[in-house]
Write a structure and sequence with these properties.
By secondary structure, the protein is of the alpha/beta class. The protein has one domain: Rossmann fold (3-Layer(aba) Sandwich), CATH 3.40.50.1820. The protein has eight helices and eight strands; from the N terminus they run αβββαβααβαβαβαβα. An eight-stranded mixed β-sheet has the order 1-2-4-3-5-6-7-8, with helices on both faces. Strand 6, helix 6 and strand 7 form a beta-alpha-beta unit. Helix 2 crosses helix 8 and helix 4 crosses helix 5. It is globular, with a radius of gyration of 18 Å. The protein starts with a helix and ends in a 5-residue tail after the last helix.
Length: 255
Amino acid sequence: MIGFKTVSFLAFIVYFCAFAMAVDYSETVIKTVDNRPVKARIYMPAEKTISPAVIIAPGQGYHQGLPIIEGLAGMLARNGMIAVSFDWYFFSEKKERSGDLSMEASDMKAVVEHAKSLEYADKERIILAGKSLGSVVAYRVFIEDKSLFSLLMLTPVIPGVETAEQLYPGFNGEARLLHIIVGDRDPDNCRLNAMYEFISKRTEPVTVSVVGGDHGLNAVRAEEPESERINRENIELAILSGIRWIRLTAGRTGQ
């Protein structure tokens, strides 16, 4: 008889093997309301049915081709969901970001509207995700658009409670589903004690996944033995946490 632990182990092997499978995506350019081009990738699941759609905002320099975002997008598609990643206009054009993040919010709003227009996107299950700076912008877009289903915050910027309250205003009163994924060694960007104090004030529950690692979710330094494999597997573990949360809350079982 195969025990529970063996089944769980085999399930993780299946998941980790899935990361090695290439996922096709289409590239597109989405125009903002003021006609700025935003470069995006659209990952579609193999089965063409109405599915949740997840829009993934990058970090300030952490673009859509890097492991956390590309890995999350690919795994979403493999689990029967639509994923749309993009790069900020300022990043693609090698410019400075806007001081108040209004330009970045406009970028993301354009991508959200494009995702809503996709043929197989479930308009009632549009989910936002954002890494670092992307979590700040995604949160702003999220609280403005009450039609959005939930928010996944990847390595959010919470160095202290006061800063968090400025970057994520109204967090405590937001009733929709939120999930945070953070590394345990990211003191400059997200101190764990500050994060827990900040989210403890929220009236509605918020779920948190803490994995080993820094702001890039790297568990060891690049010069250490087998760092590439260790860091890749650590990022994959974080992604699996996000996938599991989305599947449970958005009701998509995937594979």
